Amino acid sequence: MEAAKRRRMPYLFLSPYLLFYAAFGLFPIIFSFYVSLTDWDGIRDKTFIGLDNYLHLFNPNSYFFKSIGNTLLFVAVSLPLQIVLGLVIATLLYSRAVKGRAFFQLVNFMPYIVTPVAIGLMFNLLFDWQAGVVNKLLLHFGFIDEAIYWLGEAFYARMVIILMLVWKGFGYTMIFYLAGLANIPKDLLEAAQVDGATGLRAFFSITLPLLRPVTMFIVITGIIGGFQLLEEPMLLLSGSGMGSSSAVIGGPDRCCLTAVWNMYDTAFGSTTRYGLGAAIAWGLCLIIALFSFLGVRLYKGDAE
To answer: What are phi and psi of 48, to 5 degrees?
Structure first.
């Protein structure tokens, strides 16, 4: 009797977490999948339509693949820049030539902890067409003759979002590279110096290969985080001073419509189609799972 009671005790202590997870985690996941098989606007009764919502994702009017392409573009351009910039700054801060290392670490990491809403509004004010600081500086120094409509043209709007992502994310990569540099045995670098290797040669032959696991981790988490991009572009393109372009979801020609933004607008925005929004969410979940699986496989391959 006493042994049976001891075996039940762990489940008793775990029961509060399991109950909360079942109520606020597992049930919403199952319910969202059920909703994705229905036509529902949140008010009228649900109408079961099977896989029609998933088939609608292949329709250009759903903007599903366009939003996925936009998200992949932002990740493919911004993530390598974050990695390179974070690695360079981490290497400089790890060297003995830089004083005040803790201060510069804090300054470079602070953009990552700023809330996405604040980042979107800040860049909206910086790149505003009429009152933005960037246009005023470029006009003042004579680099341009007239103000650039940064957030009203597809190419410039994408550039601003990529710049915003790099500014926010390079501090994150810097912290991980600093931890990776601290774990590299100094004996290897000292042996390379004895053999006559220059600092640049030692970096590319020893430091960079040993940092490969850190790089793979940053790539995997960066791709997952990139597919969750929502608040920054939404606030950037919907903030003050946007004029007529704010009426277009996702910016001009929906060039900045991300996957999560498309899901949010479909479910809670202009159309209020909960079923289609849930289908978009599950499609995005499968894509993130695919990239995560490929990233883990590559990581294990490097580890072996």
So the answer is: -70, 125
**pLDDT tens string 270-300:** 778 999 999 999 999 999 999 888 877 877 7
Where do the domains of the chain lie, and which CATH numbers do they carry?
60-303 (1.10.3720.10)
pLDDT tens, position by position, 76-107: 999 999 999 999 999 989 887 777 888 888 89
Look at residue 228 and give its three-state secondary structure: coil
State both tokens at 27. 């049930």
E strands of the chain, at which residues? 38-39, 47-48
Looking up tokens 């580890």 gives: 303
CA nearest to 127, candidates 266, 237, 262: 237
| Per-residue DSSP letter, 304 | -
Q: List residues bridging with 39 in a β-sheet.
A: 47
CB burial string 123-135: b at 16+ within 10 A, e below: bbbbbbbeebebb
- Of 28, 44, 30, 36, nearest in space to 62 by CA: 36
Higher-scoring residue by pLDDT: 249, 215: 215
- Positive or negative CA dihedral for 270, 276, 278, 280? negative
Please report the pLDDT score of residue 243 as a whole number: 43
Closest of 259, 77, 233 to residue 151, by C-alpha: 233
Q: Which residue has 């390598």 as its token pair?
A: 80
Total length of the chain: 304
Least confident of 41-45, 139-143, 191-195, 219-223: 191-195
Do 53 and 237 contact (CB within 8 A), yes or no? no
Handedness of CA 122, 128, 132, 134 (dihedral sign): positive
Number of CB atoms found within 10 A of residue 164's CB: 24
